[in-house]
Amino acid sequence: MNAAGAGCAHCPGSGCLIRARSVLLAPAARRACSSPGGPASRGSSSKMEQTCDDIDEMFSNLLGEMDLLTQSLGVETVQPPSPKESNKEYNFTVGFKDLNESLSALEDNDLDALMADLVADLTEVEQKTVQAQKTSHYSQSEVTQPSTSVCAAASYDYKSNVPVTTTGRFEDDLPPPPPDPAFNLPLPPPPPEPLTQEELETQAKADKIKLALEKLKEAKVKKLVVKVHMNDNSTKSLMVDERQVARDVLDNLFEKTHCDCNVDWCLYEIYPELQIERFFEDHENVIEILSDWTRDSENKVLFLEKNEKYAVFKNPQNFYLANKGKNEGKEMNEKNKEFLLEESFCGTSVIVPELEGALYLKEDGKKSWKRRYFLLRASGIYYVPKGKTKTSRDLACFIQFENLNIYYGTQYKLKYKAPTDYCFVLKHPQIQKESQYIKYLCCDDQGTLQQWVTGIRIAKYGKTLYDNYKRAVQRASLASGWANLATVKPAVTAGSSLTDITGTVQANGQILQSIPPARLEAQKHTEMTKDKKPNDVNGCRSVQPTSQPQTYQNKRASIKPPPPQRRSSAVSSTPLQPAQPKRGSAVFTSDPVTFPPPPPEMAEDLPPPPPDFCEDPPDFVPPPPPTCSSSTEDLLPPPPPPPPSQASLSNKPLPVTKKVGPPPPKRQVNTERTEEPKSMGLPPSGGGSGQPDLMSDLMKALQKKRGNTS
Amino acid sequence: MAGLKTASGDYIDASWELSVAVEELGPEAEPLTLRVTGDVHIGGVMLQIVDKIKVKQNWSDHALWWEQKKLWLLKTNWTLDKYGLQADARLRYTPQHKPVRLQLPNRRMICVHASFSEPVFRAVAGICRVLSIRHAEELSLLRAPKEKDKKKRKGPVLGTEDEFDLSGVVLPASAEQQPFRGMPAHFSDSPATEACYRMLSVSWTGLTPEHVLKMPRPSNLVEKAQINSRWLSSSRSLMQQDVRENEQLWLRFKYYNFFDLEPKYDAVRITQLYEQARWAVLLEETESTEEEMMVFAALQYHINKLSLSADPTETAGEQGMDDLDSALSNLQVKLEGGTSTSDMLENLTTIPELKDYLRVFRPRKLTLKGYKQHWVVFKETTISYYKSREEALGEPVQQLNLKGCEVVPDVNISGQKFCIRLLVPSPEGMSEVYLRCEDEQQYASWMAGCRLAAKGRTMADSTYQSEVQNILSFLQLQRASPDAPVAPDAEAMGTQWLVSPRYQKKFKPKQLTPRILEAHQNVAQLSLTEAKMRFIQAWQSLPDFGISYFVVRFKGSRKDEILGIANNRLIRIDLAVGDVVKTWRYSNMRQWNVNWDIRQVAIEFDEHINVAFSSVSAGCNIVHEYIGGYIFLSTRSTDKGRGLDEELFYKLTGGHEAL
């Protein structure tokens, strides 16, 4: 489970051979890691500078090598080791489904190259160990992996440690790129402004390192297929990766469902056995939550609207002022609300609503309820012991919120003879069965219940809650804005993705002459879009909608475009301009079909793992016209969903696609042919066997999914 | 020129004699007498005085003070007539800035020059500029308690032994203070001032339980209200409020509305705020529960420990650096620190394990089984135990994933008992397991591993070693009871001083230390500034935080009640029980008036709610200023470019005396 193991996971599915300078790179890279602060890093002596230069050079060398490799992918020539190469070379191989994928996965390789270098530093003996580890991973993953398809609730696979190739694939397929917060910052290789190479040197360095780190992480990303129940009793399955928080998953679902995206939508977990339920907070890591469920769990995840989720931000007075001045009406003007929120959430510390009162507490193991006087404080829930006053010093701690989640208890009157049905439950997230460690409390009425639940959430999550809300509002307003913007948007997308590309290029130390004009154009577009945006009431509102889509795109772009870019540099540059709108439109219309239609060849590929390195042209020649489209699919994360766009894609040489496209189709076929067999064949060990399983699972899910949406 | 006279010596113009006392001539000296007419302006009078004194010195800070009227004659172009000065006026020619002895929020004394002629608001701003505390509007001055109060205390008051002198400090003319060697430039003049800066920006580590015990503690709301009667009025000068040269005053954060706390610039401010918070907690001015007290104690312990080694200049520098940067440079140092490549790889790729024979105990209902020896392997976040070492390849007796579990120390040093109690969550509930270690070292390394694992981290985490050290040093704390000689450093002093006297009495050190240790594990990784900020935040989230109490009599009520003034609301509190009777928020406030004749504050809220009260424990003007001050502070904008609207402040707080 360490980095080395993960990095090596690439090896099994092999297509191209990449020789990387190992020893040189590894320590340098590591040193580089210590200064991603870039320009900000102070105290860096000239020595440091020098090192950085070295790293830079090495990076570009490495990338250059890769470019060459990409070019020669089909030809199967192994790149002659560069002169600087040290004796200790470490060969490792990476498998790809096809050329396009290989391109998009190339970034992974950078990283993997790094990792491989790390590994290469070890002796060969150690290499063997790593191999062994790897295989053990596979067997593990096989063990943990239940049949993928979905059982009653949300079934999930442990795909951790599965060969990266697959992961990479998923990534490509996952249409709405995980708008992962973690992702937001580190990922974008694109420096904010395209500057000259020299100016950007430090920035680029930092970016590269960030990218590398990101890739490192990505290498062991765990993914689950989660079945989400919709409020119309249908279900949707979607792929959730380890880094995604509830917000990301919601965004995914928004795209799939065409709902109104308002802030009340939430993921809602239900424990039928305990009769408890709660909504996920937007910042919570979904996989983490789901991992606490037992394998045979009946728990479900729902996608529905819950007004309670952000009620406190819509009407803070009901929570913050409720107990005070009784004359205070339920109504409050917006300005005062804002003021109240500001006061409560934006200070040095968050203010937890003052809340105290008698609640019923279920006694351990009995169905009897005892009335006690409870107080909520930021540090926990307290009660007043018998015969004591409610001054702070006399209070006894009932519970603190660390390692606790709060749930609503449903129908407890029936189940536990609760005095009312307004119950809430506090338990450790991992507890799934009845236990003395679960605390049951019962309120007199619905209002009190809401106050307590909300109060506890505020005490537990603090300002995060408010941030979540603000993000949700942003998302909602964005959604409403989108309708109008559909026509304009593409430019934005194009612009941002392009910028990304150039950034990468520079980072790699290769200058693409054809790019700048296009980029400028794109930027203009972007600006225009911004202007056109319907400016909402205030400045911040108007800004956010714009920035949001961009970052959103960036993420996607940052994942994908760089490789094509490099490729295009290697192959020959083509006018990028036309492509942009296309890509954009694809992105935006992609709502209905989130999972790209599984590329037909893929399905074919999987079952027959061809023997090592043998080329099997006839089998794999994809139907001629699809070549192009299939490549598009792979490349474009949000597959052009509606058929028309598909068609257009395949007809026209697409820009983004096109970057890939330039090499004549024939060539692509070639490469595909060569690669795929390899990817299947190379790992004679567990990898090969593990992979098809996964892939077919995935396919199933995809197809199912597709069936749902279409 | 005034003073025309006839041959007989009678003055024939309208001139008269003005007597002016000049301190520089000595206390016994007769006042100077000047011959003036009513149309002489003040500047002219001062010129005459200087001429007459014939002492060569810088008189530029001097001004005339009219004793009867308690008035500074600062407008030099005004004539005596305009000021209404007559021959009976007694004037003093005296410096506008005089030294005062300030007790800072950290209870230490400092001597500074303060303006005696400007309103206290400005005087405080001046003092804070010297001390490098931003947002001086949040602070103000109080009179020190009367002598008789002081006598109750037996020993010397904390910190009075060494008083720091900053009276000689000259501030740079520019408003911008350039940091020099990590501290504001004016502190780097001499070693003495540097020491002073250290005192200001690093919390004092020499505290003993006695210090806390000796401090007067308010035991009820009425006593808490007393301190608020001592605030000086912000809109009048120190001189006008009969503050004398070298008098002792307290400098405190008065308004609990801390704006823009920024570790980069606020080293002193945060430290002083932390100190005020710490004392409020220790003296139970702000009440906290037992659990909260343990967290406060742990934070104090942590801050104390870090402060021992802290270099103020370094903290300032460090704070300037981005977290990422510093983390990375640390990493760099580590990586370049000579370990060979393979070692590094080892570190990167292998996760340390612990394996040993430990005694394991699983309490179950109706079993009396005790501890049983097992071979225990701790890998990543999982503990597995086997019947014996030889069986370690087979199935473990049990495997526990410690992620999210609760780790509680169960240690008795004198009994040589080193137990770790684990509450491990599982789908069925929590399972309880005790691990018993042989000695401290073993205990520390396992305990540290458990703690990290509970947070989902492995022993490969960089904090593992420091965690082990922490635990060992805590064990040391417990050990250092009777036999060990009391070492001068703070660690040996035990943990008693970290909690308020109530809890000092309630718990024996033996009980206290493990609890603090338990709380400490959650804060052990904080940096010094972070820890202080955390303390301040925890303090702020106490329900009692930021409420200033006054004993008042509401209109129409016949008994005294308590009025609590907080930064966003007024609270009417039952004096006897302490229950909140009613709360009014400023945001609903329409207007408030003070009837200075009957000393009554009348406030009108939305929906025609009218409240009127007179203040019993403090001057009506203090209550008025408190409310006005909070409203003023809420008008501060985040726009840093804009200065404070001082006029508004006086308008809101000054009442009829202002202007």
From TrEMBL, chain A:
SUPFAM superfamilies per the UniProt record, alphabetical: PH domain-like, Ubiquitin-like
Compositionally biased spans, kind Pro residues: 175-194, 594-612, 636-645
Family under the similarity heading: Belongs to the MRL family.
Topology class, membrane: Peripheral membrane protein
GO cellular component: cytoskeleton; cytosol; T cell receptor complex
PH domain segment(s): 352-461
Segments for region (Disordered): 165-196, 522-710
Domain Ras-associating: from-to ranges: 222-309
Name of the gene this protein is made from: APBB1IP
Gene3D superfamilies: Phosphatidylinositol 3-kinase Catalytic Subunit, Chain A, domain 1, Pleckstrin-homology domain (PH domain)/Phosphotyrosine-binding domain (PTB)
Pfam (any one): RA_2
Cited InterPro entries: GRB/APBB1IP, PH-like_dom_sf, PH_APBB1IP, PH_domain, RA_dom, Ubiquitin-like_domsf
The protein's name: Amyloid beta A4 precursor protein-binding family B member 1-interacting protein
UniProt feature, compositional bias: Polar residues: 541-556, 566-577
Keywords: Cell membrane, Cytoplasm, Cytoskeleton, Membrane
Listed Basic and acidic residues bias regions: 522-535, 669-678
Alphabetized SMART domains for the sequence: PH, RA
Taxonomic lineage from the root: Eukaryota, Metazoa, Chordata, Craniata, Vertebrata
TrEMBL record, chain B:
Keyword DNA damage: no
Pfam families in UniProt: FERM_M (PF00373), Kindlin_2_N (PF18124), PH (PF00169)
Name listed for the protein in its UniProt record: FERM domain containing kindlin 3
Keyword Isomerase: no
Organism listed in the record: Gopherus evgoodei
GO cellular component, one term: cell projection
UniProt keyword list: Cell adhesion, Cell junction, Cell projection
Localization per Swiss-Prot or TrEMBL: Cell junction; Cell projection
